[in-house]
Specification:
Layout (H helix, E strand, L loop, with lengths): L1 E7 L7 H14 L2 E6 L2 H6 L3 E3 L27 H13 L2 E8 L1 H14 L2 E6 L15 H22 L2 E6 L6 H10 L3 E3 L8 H12 L5 E6 L6 H12 L3 E5 L11 H19 L4 E7 L2 E6 H5 L7 H5 L2
Parallel strand pairs: 1-2, 1-4, 4-5, 5-10, 6-8, 6-9, 7-8
Antiparallel strand pairs: 2-3, 10-11
Length: 316
């Protein structure tokens, strides 16, 4: 029997635990011995690697986060620690890896492969949805549903007090979460890093809307824009003339019971990833778009910045 391991790196997402469950079950179905690497690349360096059993994944499909932990490893950026990681894999005869993470995780994995030729398949797993080459990353649907619930609740108090609310989503330099939330929440303003804007251009229209009966505003902004949420709120008060409040959603967006879509995506991501490794696909990222699942080289995925759908951007 061959040995295969899985690790989670970078920010956790809802969907990782369903992925771990499918990993153990499908690996055993394929007569592979599954191993968990705990705490990401840090655990790989520290040899925190254990054979996984059915009991390890019992009851975890409903839980957000990741049972095996995650981390951002500065040590893994150094070749001497990557060499230690390789020795730990060799000692357990593990020659195949599934890696769940985002762009930084994949860049480290690429370097690891170039140095030590450890076969891998990477699964895009970040609520930012900022991985080049894939339209969907694990965890995004759950995050969007968490945001939806929050925005819907905030709307209740916004309408009651005739206020503007500035709601900040995660995303780093990618405005995907803010854009999709804006299009599906009926908010009046959306600011994302991908589109240049001047707040002054909205003032006249918003004042006109107030005169014509608008009692409140919902503004969705991405954390990567040029102004802070507090600055946008101050603009609402000074230039538009409406009391404003700020809500930073923060890390609540990462957690929560995984949605049906993320459970299904976890199942199919992992199944296809293991099949690809068994077919001899050694250094790929499994991606998903309108044509279904496909595989791209790690070089293609990490070599360019993600560009949001132009049609969706045109709606702003």
């Amino acid at each position: 029997m061959k040995n295969i391991a899985i690790l989670c790196s970078g920010g956790d997402v809802s969907g990782m635990n369903p992925a771990l469950k499918r990993f153990v079950e499908y690996a055993k179905e394929k007569r592979l011995t599954p191993f968990f690497i705990y705490d990401g690349y840090e655990g790989l360096i520290d040899n925190n690697i254990k054979e996984a059993t059915y009991s390890d994944v019992s009851g975890i499909i409903t839980r957000g986060g990741t049972k095996i932990g995650s981390a951002r490893s500065k040590r893994f950026m150094q070749s001497k620690f990557r060499a230690i990681a390789k020795k730990n894999l060799d000692a357990l005869n593990i020659d195949m890896l599934l890696v769940l993470g985002g762009d930084g995780t994949f860049k480290g994995l690429h370097t690891f492969y170039k140095e030590h030729k450890v076969k891998f398949c990477a699964i895009p797993s970040t609520i930012d949805n900022d991985i080049n080459g894939t339209d969907y990353c694990l965890g995004v649907d759950t995050a969007l549903n968490v945001i939806k619930t929050s925005v819907d609740s905030i709307r209740d108090t916004a309408s009651s007090f005739s206020r503007a609310f500035v709601i900040e989503t995660m995303g780093r330099d990618c405005g995907y979460l803010a854009l999709i939330t804006h299009l599906t929440s009926g908010s009046e303003l959306c600011l994302i890093p991908e589109i240049e804007y001047e707040l002054s251009s909205y003032a006249k229209e918003f004042k006109s809307q107030i005169k014509n009966g608008r009692r409140y505003f919902i503004s969705i902004i991405s954390e990567g824009i040029k102004q802070s949420a507090q600055e946008v709120a101050e603009w609402f008060e000074k230039d538009v003339g409406i009391e404003a409040r700020v809500v930073i959603l923060g890390h609540v967006q990462r957690g929560g019971n995984p949605s049906v879509k993320d459970r299904l995506m976890a199942y199919t991501f992992v199944t296809n990833a293991i099949d690809a490794l068994l077919r001899g696909n050694e250094k790929s990222v499994i991606c998903h778009d309108n044509f279904g699942f496909n595989f791209k080289s790690i070089e293609e995925v990490t070599g360019s910045k993600k560009v949001l759908d132009k049609k969706l951007l045109s709606y702003l």
